């Protein structure tokens, strides 16, 4: 499956929250993300990602192992994605290190998730604040087959427009890159 996703900077977060609250019940969660790669940046050179995410929320804690392949849509950065819930975060980290993967960056995200159906698609809208990065972001995504990426992104653009977010607000900036850049200025 492909994660068709668009990310935008949000200039009026309170208004966007109000409009999302009209669509679904939001759930506040904290994501603790650790990205792994092989020595020499093997995954990075292939435009792939390997992540362990521990999610802390009102319904408990869960850990998800995710692999994202190379992007299939250059404009959005949408990628094939495989993920699975794992039972033990520490064991998962230990297994990856034992296989030769090294943690390359770790950080936390404060998220508010909204799951809803619009334009015939199951969507997840996530408002994101990364403490080390200025601003609020909105990610809207859906999982689709490869032949549905373009229509799915068109539907996501329509949802973003309804939330007052235009093409000029879209960004391809990765949180990993933004956190790295911020940390490099602190050295």
Automatic annotation (TrEMBL):
Domain of life from the UniProt record: Bacteria
Could you tell me which CDD domains the record lists for this protein? Answer: CYTH-like_AC_IV-like (cd07890)
Which InterPro entries does its entry note? Adenylyl_cyclase_CyaB, CYTH-like_dom_sf, CYTH_domain
Instruction: Give TM regions.
Output: none
PROSITE patterns with a match to the protein in the record? CYTH
Q: Which ranges carry the CYTH domain?
A: 1-181
Q: Pfam families, alphabetically?
A: CYTH (PF01928)
Q: What is this protein called?
A: Class IV adenylate cyclase
Organism, by scientific name, is: Streptomyces yaizuensis
